[in-house]
Design brief:
By secondary structure, this protein is of the alpha/beta class. It contains ten helices and five strands, in the order βααββαβααβααααα. It folds into two domains: 132 residues, 3-Layer(aba) Sandwich (Rossmann fold); 72 residues, no CATH class. Helix content is 33%, strand content 13%.
Length: 231
């Protein structure tokens, strides 16, 4: 059987998503029985030829990185945006830490992206599901649930009912509501869920006496949370 030739590439980022993959340890070794990892800066692997699958972490912060992502796209059959930086251009970090003045473009402003692994960092189980589908020649499907629906299934206590801001009702699931399970509100790092109603959510927050942050009001004026020009 042909092994998939895989490269993991870094643009501007903390490389936390790559660390999340490496933390799989023995399970990652099992994956490596079925793929040929040829490039990964963290592991000191360098490869300048074509690959079957390119995972790209990070946002585009310079013309040089814009050229780099186009070059990676040109020699990869499948390209995957790895984490929120690559998917949305660090939209959620900018919201929290006031770094919105720096150039932070999502990679699909420059190239076509085949799949997204969302989150900050990504969910390692979702990575395993995606790589398994690719190995078996299947099309990976993202979760259609919201984080809120995952919370209900897990019987987590609702933070909104306690008066704390949580974006779970409007955020795409797939993370098993890990933040809420640890008593922290969802900050939306997986982007908008399908067919969510932003206006209704804002009205619900008002009824609960929860202050409405400006970035949430901004969702009513522009493209979906976590989306970009080519989404």
């Amino acid at each position: 059987m042909h092994k998939l030739k895989v490269g993991i590439y870094s643009l501007s980022s903390c490389e936390g998503c790559i660390v999340q993959i490496l933390n799989l340890e023995e399970r990652l070794l099992e994956v490596l029985n079925h793929v040929d990892l040829v490039e990964c800066r963290v592991l000191g692997l360098k490869h300048d030829d074509e690959v079957d699958v390119a995972f790209v972490e990070g946002f585009v912060s310079s013309d040089e990185e814009a050229t780099k992502i186009k070059e990676i796209r040109g020699r990869s059959r499948i390209l995957i945006a790895l984490g929120d930086c690559a998917y949305s251009g660090m939209r959620f970090v900018a919201k929290d830490f006031g770094t919105s003045t720096i150039r932070a473009d999502p990679i699909n402003m420059y190239v076509n992206v085949d799949y997204h692994l969302r989150g900050c960092p990504i969910d390692s189980e979702e990575f395993l599901s995606l790589i398994s589908d690719l190995i078996h020649g299947k099309k990976f499907k993202e979760s259609s649930k919201t984080v809120c629906s995952e919370c209900i299934l897990l019987e987590n206590k609702c933070l909104l009912d306690k008066g704390f801001l949580c974006l779970g009702p409007i955020t795409r699931g797939g993370c098993n509501a890990i933040c809420i399970a640890n008593n922290k509100g969802c900050f939306g790092c997986r982007g908008l869920g399908d067919d969510v109603n932003i206006s209704a959510f804002i009205e619900s927050l008002k009824s609960k006496g929860i202050s409405i942050p400006s970035y949430l009001l901004g969702l009513l004026k522009g493209p979906g949370y976590g989306s970009s020009q080519n989404s």
